[in-house]
## 1
Amino acid sequence: MNATDNSHDILDAREISRALERMAGEIVALAEGTENVVLVGIRRRGVELAERLAATIGGRVPLGALDITLYRDDLRTIGPRPVVGGTNVPMDLTDKYVVIVDDVLYTGRTVRAALDELRDFGRPGRIALCVLVDRGGRELPIQADIVGHSVEVRPTDRVDVLIREVDGTDAVRLVRGENA
Amino acid sequence: MSTVSLGKDLVGLEDLTREQIELILYTSETFKEVSERAVKKVPTLRGLTIVNLFYEPSTRTRISFEFAEKRLSADTVNIVAAGSSVEKGENLVDTARNLEAMRIDMVVMRHPSSGAAKFLAERIPSNVINGGDGWHEHPTQALLDLLTIRDHLGELSGVKVCICGDILHSRVARSNIWGLLKLGAEVGLCGPPTLLPRGIEELGVRVFRRIEEAIEWADALNILRLQLERMRSGFIPSLGEYNRVFGVTQDRLERAKKNVLILHPGPMNRGVEIDSRVADGPNSVILRQVTNGIAVRMAVLYLLAGGPAD
């Protein structure tokens, strides 16, 4: 996956790494420590980002993974069933400080589904949202608490987060839509 | 994998490709986790109505489907029509039309006639899942057997599975044969000659006349329930003799060189086709089958729901 004519990188590997470092610090500040913090990544790339944040924070911050497919609001309209990954929440979340981690925040529908799913694992004391990129375009009243990078794009544009573990490279790439 | 889909209905494993079967097994893994949660429910099929239409008695399959449906948040209605004297074909069409008029979305059907599931699937737009039709197929039972064997032996390709007992009258056997062969397993069959379909070897399966040879050969035994009415029909002389010749006993297992995985679709006739020490022994995965049954049925319901109408 290389940048082409209609795409360019908004963040490179070094900038992503710096952003994650800052975000890790903000998580600790927001939660006033790490004692009750649980990082829950949204499949796919949110899971790897949560792992990196946990490594940066240090200590032993528990990690979880959510596949929100079963909680989507559009299953009836999108044709063939999407492949379901699998959810792994290692503990009862009651009274925990849960930080949802995802790569891109767009319509907010994924986060809505994640909030519904988290409710089935207990009653967290607080849930915060941490995303690498906020591209605007919300369709639901949802905002992030911690943002790595904000970018204004057109609805036809795509913002891809590439990460080493999945894509072989670290980059945030803006792909211009056809009707640009 | 995301390009594979199941279509509208699940009638039998004979109709599915290897990729479709693998998609169901893969998806089942996810649903295992849902049943281990404190809140065992996801909103996936909220608003869908599913009818469990059972023309034959069934406890395990019906309850398993009902759990699967409820854990996916579907609304369910059970219709038990056992012993209905109305002529089958006509009755089924009428029933189907009535169900359609009630705006249902999916039907799970158990029926004594082979081909009933296909018959219904061709006549109503709802998704139809075969919960066992005559001697034909019982696809979700075979899928949960495949999942359980794969859980314990790591893979299905190259695994030797022997199905033991009344193969002739068994929809479980037929679905298992299709599923196992498609996934690359080797299939053996063992039972009294009167209960083995003639020419079954042509499917590419091995036939064992003696249970000792089957145990020696197999990595897993799927021991079918001996339906007691077969004795009255003269297929076997007596239950005691069946146990002496074909029963899977602890002695016979101990004589085999290796551990053999033990499956049984239930309900068991202890002391007939399987001894209690085997059923409750360390190699038995019979209760894992029951747990996996719910995950497999959730996967099938999820993959079929709202699927294409043709």
## 2
Amino acid sequence: MRPITLIRNAKHWKTGARVDVGFRDGVIVADLAEREAGSVIEADGLTLAPGLVDLHVHLREPGQSVKETIATGTRAAAAGGFTAVCCMPNTIPVLDEAVQVEWVRERAAAVGSCRVHPIGAVTMGQQGEQLAPAMALKTAGAVALSDDGHPVVSAAIMRRALEYARHANLPIVCHEEDPTLRGEGQMNEGFTATRLGLRGIPNAAESVMVRRDVELAELTGGRVHLAHLSCFESFEALRDAKRRRLAVTGETCPHYWTLTDEAVGDYDTNARMNPPLRSERDRDATLAAIVDGTVDCLATDHAPHTADEKRRPFEEAPFGIVGLETALALTITTLVRPGHLSLARALELWTDAPRRVFDLPAVRLEPGNPADLVLLDPEAEWTVEPERFHSKGRNTPFAGWKLHGRVLATVCGGRLTHRDPSVGVARVRRELAAAGEGN
Amino acid sequence: MSRATTPPRERRHLLGLEGMSREEILAILDAAECCRARLRAGGMPFDDLRGVTVLLAFFEDSTRTRVSFELAARHLGATVATLTTAGSSISKGESLFDTVQNIGAMGVDLVVVRHSASGAPAFLARQLDVGVINAGDGRHEHPTQGLLDLMTLRDAWKNRFAGRRLALVGDVAHSRVARSAIFGLTALGASVTVAGPATLIPAGLERLGCAVAPTVEEAMEGADAVMALRLQKERMDGGLLPSLGEFSKVWGLTVERVRLLARDAVVLHPGPMNRGVEVMPEVADGERSVILDQVENGVALRCAVLERCAEAARRAPPAPVAGAGLGAPGGTGAAHAKETV
């Protein structure tokens, strides 16, 4: 029998109790006899939690590996404390067939640093016309369906997609955007856009589609997951859906509660994403929706682009920012430290909550559960330095921010997938590193 | 909005009037008046900018602005090169960044840039170690137009801006001229009232410092000047306007509406005019029209701007090689061997 790896003297993320957690062959075990421990991580009071899950990541592979690869994207995920990511199907080719989904899973198994759960397309080629084979996609391992980045424009197609997805019991992740209302919009409609002479994207471009899909959830009984919600009206619609007990869930992203459209400043392409950064009122509404539980979970919408692509005039640069390596620290710094959420609740929004939304197996710090773990120091302060990201993408509006909360070690399936170089060495025994890397 | 005097080194750029102080604007207007007097007296070319290379980089069609800059640069003795979109590497898919890096490597001192993307000149100024003059970027600003409008209004208003009011009428949403006019006039203590179809008034416009009137009559009543903004014909396509005829009837500058203005008020238009649409021919050619004064002032004003920017570029300390460190001042890299004149 292989020796166990023991995490000693950690602080339980929920109870705050001192705990020792050991695992062997990727599973948490009950027998923690020290003599069986092959390696020991001295947690020294660090917080131990289940690994984080990100329901909304663009790994860019296949097809756009100049922006990101499965290897670099999952390495970034591990550094951010994630043990699972759900990757969007807007790759080249689109993940609209079982073989594509299988390829991503196999590639991730071979080179990945975390679990990768692909999201299949709703329609073939994300063209919004012909349904993708939901059952085959599910069998191949897809955990949800989405035409992310290309909203399903036709309400009729969305209706059929929701009806059909019920057979697979898969949620449809909706990037809510009415392309006609967005038009050629480049950033949030409002004073900053007007000052800079940029075309605006009104809140309604998002919220009218949220309303539509809430109604379609009612009509079809299908599961709707509202992606990266950004504005007051969308949260109102999500609240309404929950009052009506519809199968509608929603997520938001750190940039929507930390920034407003003023961050665009002097045409900063790293503050350019879709949906765009909104007004102060929307930022407040995002925060309120997180605090009151309207939002089911958090996600990053990690969207890496090359420096060349972002080094263009604002209107010509692509939308999106990276998020995996700043998500947890932004959450702790801006939600936990000011007292909006407890640490346990904040972590829940990145762990148990997203697992529930996509029916992923739960992870508890108890025997028999997968050893998907993160060890973190919620107090540790660090400065965001994009050049040190593991992601290929350096496109973040948070460069230079001083954040609290550092991931010191990540364990995925019993394998040490990240160890903080500055702090971790003193806490992790050499044998463990060897064992971890040898797994 | 904070207004501060631009640091000397940054004066080699003219990216917009937003944030520019009253003193700076008046200094440019004073210089432009001197230039106008010299140009009227004749004897061009002068040698103020001898040895200075000015590139006119026009990534979007323009006739008057380009000719006006070219005349201004030649009158001052500068070496002038022109880059227009057709036939340039831009149409072959080269990125703006690569194009301007190449320009920087050619040893250009000032780039006058017109681009359809808002913020393109600011982008160039960050990337390149040359002075950048914005000749109109997207829907953002057109600062030399704004300044020549101020120069024209200063004449009409007998050197007094305080208490004066400009009515700005028409398609504000798509107008870079409007933004520069609002920033410039508010900096000088004048006020601006805007009127136009709701579809062409952008969100949050009041926060730029202007008032928005519900009708063109209310905007023009008692105003000391009115400027009609050019209406692009393609505005009918996106459902922004029902018809040119309707626009003309409700928002066009007619003789009757011009009578609402204060005594001695003047009529401006940044051109090119759609006669019979945003401005009626009898108004454009009428006695209150200063539209051709604007054009004359344009050359003199651009002379003053070129001089200011060239002077600041001349004084600029040794800077990194163009493109290195994204053009950040004080970055690493060998000193750029800039010719001083």
